[in-house]
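Aim 2 progress update. The chain analyzed this quarter is reproduced below.
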Amino acid sequence: MGTPRPDRDDAPHLGTGAYRMDQDWHILWLALSGLIIASSGLILTVLTSLAVMLMVSAIVASRIGRRALDQ
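Predicted structure tokens:
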């Protein structure tokens, strides 16, 4: 109960930890977006750059993880 079945594409629920991690990821982006919107000047540039670097890192890590699972 609360865990995906093996060899199935079940939706992750609270019991798996993946649900919580997904929610934390969205909360992080909401907080970062709020900071960017409220900022100006150099702080805006720095926060936007950090957000872009974080997103690129997440995309690269996701692709590496998917390739590892496919092998």
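Residues 14-70 form one domain. The chain has one domain: 14-70. These observations will guide the mutagenesis experiments scheduled for the next reporting period.
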